[in-house]
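Hi there, hope your week has been kind to you so far. Would you mind checking whether the tokens look sensible for this chain? I owe you a coffee for this, so here goes:
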Amino acid sequence: MKKTSWILLLIFAILAAATYFYLNKEDKTFKGDEFAIKNTKKIAKIVIWDKTKRRVTLTKEDDHWQVNGKHRARQDAVDLLLKTFSSLHVRAMVPKAAENNIRRNINTNGIISEIYDKDNNQLKVLYIGSGSQGNMGTYMIQKGSKYPYEVGIPNWDGVLAPQFMLDEVDWKDRGVFRYKTEEIKSVSLEYFQPDRKELSFRIDKKDGKFQVQKLYGLPEKRSPIKAKTLYYLKGFESLVAEAFESKNPKRESYTTVSPFCEIKLETNKGEQKKVQLYPLPGRKTGEINDGTPVRANVERYYASINDNEEFMLIQDRVFRRILAPSSFFFDEE
């Protein structure tokens, strides 16, 4: 073999080795936690959007978060997102050969999350892509970086994109009632079936004390038991629906019939809320048993909030505490 051929072979070998080490070299400048925001208390606004113009804005208020400036946000969903921000960690570098495809996919189909502090200073911008091989992590790029990385959370395998929800309804708080006892001025519960009407009642606060009276039938001569009244009112602190049913095509038809019951609440500040419960079609509400409505065979109700302003699905096991008969407040255990 000629001397020039050996030289060419040597040059090709050196170039091949250099190319291999370049394509597989580790980014020494990256520590692994650059995607994370360790101090999530600084976060006051989160904007989530994609190229299809879907957009959600979460803003921090005094004691809660709001979604799109209109609705109270689900605290559990916000807490999970904040925990994700604080835990983000690079699991692996993306192979050089796959970089362009992953970057292109993120640019086309990815979700963008912008994070701001209370002064509207941008803390970080994350571009969230699809799951990595085996869906063990998530491909991400952050603003100012050239490279995509496989990002995850320590001791957890999975895709992070579902936590960056783009539908407003997914972020809306499902709370039907969230009132402390001291905030309540009055509560009424009215049953509409003729054989249940006498179980209806109303609670009013007068001179700092709660009074209970039946809405129908002979008035109760006994005084209500204070501990039971306070126990009942405490049940309104956190009553949460299972899901929103705002897009249910039969929403209007379900609410044309008489409801199972209607709950009205008024706060000391004059805020009023009316909730009407409708058993799901095909479910029975049971019979009267010792003066108590039997609902064991009714697992769920549709709830119409403020004359169908909202339409939700609720569980009987969550709400049964406030679906009491008038006798509850007067009978000794």
User: Anything to note?
Assistant: Residues 3-24 form the longest helix (22 residues). Residues 224 and 330 are 5 Å apart (CA to CA). Residues 28-171 form one domain. The first strand starts at residue 45 and ends at 50.
